[in-house]
Amino acid sequence: MGIVFGPVPSRRYGLSLGLDIIPKKTCSFNCIYCEVGLTDNLTIERKPFLKLEDLKGEIDESLKNISHLDVITFSGSGEPTLNSEIGRMIRYLKKNYNFPVVVITNGSLLWMKEVREELSFADIVEPTLNAGKEETFMKISRHDKDIILPLHIEGLIKFREEFKGKYFLELFFVKGVNDDEEDVKKMIEITRKINPDKIHLNTIDRPPSTDCLPVDEEFLLKIKNLLPDKTEILSRFKGLKTYIEIEDFILKTVKVRALKIDDIFSMLKNERKKIEDVICDLIDKGKIKEVIFNGEKYIQGV
């Protein structure tokens, strides 16, 4: 499997080179809103799915051809902390490259001491909180049987106490699932207890794995007003360039998550007609497909 994807524009971190170190949809959660798809392997068993040696050659080759980059990010198509090699990988990147290393995680394994220790070498770690009540947590995350909300929260808090880098926390909301008064109140209480460096408010932005819906901007604004000034609503990405060939960029990017066609135009900064021709050709070849979500066209990997 390909480990490196992008660079892709991130609404949070600028231009990011992604590292996908887990087999597709191996995760401790099976979130109803996941934009990558349903979880095939629901587990909390950590394994060396890919080893540092697998990463070295691919990342070294990729970085030779990139003239601008803001961060290197562990994310992709599964939960990255399930890979027991992630600590070695982070240390290698920090030793050999001058880019900040980001780990985007659901936070479900932060109660494990070894996971907290391995992530301690990263520059930024951003876990997710998506529920304030156990029943909501189960409904939205559909998690591994060994994970319960108090354990999840305990891990989020312990990591905050120990981590020396920047701790960002994502609060993710789904309409009609975790947007009731009680859930919101408890999520805010937990967030205040964690006291992250930055809070990101997020909702569904790309086609999810089930028929769930985003909350509206007004709701997120209300939540923002209840939290400290370091709270941001994640806005649509605009205007960053990529520096790799159009077809390769599209294939690598939409393999991981769907993208709006307009976002592809914005990212590539090439002639619109040329990009449209590449997209049509890839669809005809069966390498990508077009899907509709909330009335907008997205391109998705096959």
UniProtKB/TrEMBL annotation:
Keywords: 4Fe-4S, Iron, Iron-sulfur, Metal-binding, S-adenosyl-L-methionine. One of its GO terms (molecular function) is metal ion binding. Gene3D superfamilies: Aldolase class I (3.20.20.70). It comes from the Bacteria. Pfam families: Radical_SAM. Residues 11-245 form the Radical SAM core domain. Its cofactor is [4Fe-4S] cluster. PANTHER family: FEMO COFACTOR BIOSYNTHESIS PROTEIN NIFB-RELATED, UPF0026 PROTEIN SLR1464. This is Radical SAM protein. It comes from candidate division WOR-3 bacterium.
